[in-house]
Design brief:
- With 213 residues, the chain is mostly beta strands.
- It has four helices and twelve strands.
- It has one domain.
Length: 213
Amino acid sequence: MSPPKTLRYRLTLEIEVDGVVHTGSSVVETVWYDQSLVKGLAGGIPWVVHARGEALIVDLGSRGALFALLTGLATKNRGSDAMYFPDDPEQVLLAAFGVKGRASLTPDALEKLSHRRDTVPIPASGLPMLVRFRNIRDPLSVEQVSPDDLASSFGAGVKLKRATIAITEAPITTGVASKLIWLRSLNGGYLTGKHASDVGPAGTFYSGMFERS
């Protein structure tokens, strides 16, 4: 088995608020372990990926803060019309650079991808889950935000101007825990303390969506 390959990417969002652009970015590290030659895994998962980093934050001033979470690109849930965001930050990276999932990524292709330094635009449909908090001190006030309609969450005059991604050697972003002062107290758990649909939308959110190490 070949040694693991480390690749970092920077996701950047530009949000326009009443004509003024607010920018936020976050660097996430992914470590790729090639499983293709592991005995007993033929036809199985070709890569195991470990991600480190944190959610991207865009400070919108008096309008609040927008968070892009550490989740993968939204996909159809088991063939239904419902959408879900898988627990795979690297899916955003692969989709942006035209890779159709881990299974189609060869070691040579991953090596070439790691050397790219161009900045690639991402459509709203290619973003990870976006959220906001009605009260930044209350984790239960979390709400999912539509990238196509930020105004419905943040008020008139707020819209997504541009989203980009780029491979980088910059350090992993830190600091989300200073913004979400309750985050570390969750100890990796759900925002509600339990995963249950009867406790409201926050029951589907957990700390690993905001920070991983």
